[in-house]
């Protein structure tokens, strides 16, 4: 199945009150695991490459081309998405490479600057049929610090979507990036308010820190795209450690990376059921 647009996957899920799993790719094994999980679960997924991941690989193109190839070979619908790009040139490169979705993150800017910069990205991306996600009400934890008090204002969110033309909006509702425990306390009342007010799909960042039952409830209250990264890296790391502890003389990375890939696949299958993404 060819790559699909986020409109095909995310907009439909919003209309049906379902969640879409969006998982961050760092190594090609991540992409392979997530696509295998989607095929097993019989649903679509979003493969995300962040600005930080691109930097790690020395540029976007190497990991992007590998991820796009994995996605195009999938039997399940797959969106390839640029995550948390603050660099406008990186957004343009992602569009050129064939990404079907991009996130421009102007949340560190003041409101008017965020609107102006995001609207400019929307014009460029929409001219190529590419879906655009933005962020309003800065989600905490880029440095690992939980910021439970940060919230997106519904009225401001409505104005921001109208002014920019974005296709999805990441909102601050109590989750935080880079959490290694699942203790985030979501503001479900604010999620419901935002869902009622905002005409585009809502995105939950920092979902690694959210317990299963709260992820399910978040989808029911109105979140659509659910981003998970740290939790799956933890799954990978634990599987690698277990394999190497059991096989201390192994030197073939395919052995231990394969074990990690399988562990991530199985956990994503489980998470897709938690999100009721069927």
From TrEMBL:
InterPro entries referenced in this protein's UniProt entry, alphabetically: Aldolase_TIM, Class_II_FBP_aldolase, FBA_II
TM stretches of this protein? none
Family annotation (CDD domains) = TBP_aldolase_IIB (cd00947)
Requisite cofactors: Zn(2+)
Q: Which domain of life is it from?
A: Bacteria
- Check the record and name the NCBIfam families matching this protein: cbbA
Q: What is the recorded name of this protein?
A: Class II fructose-bisphosphate aldolase
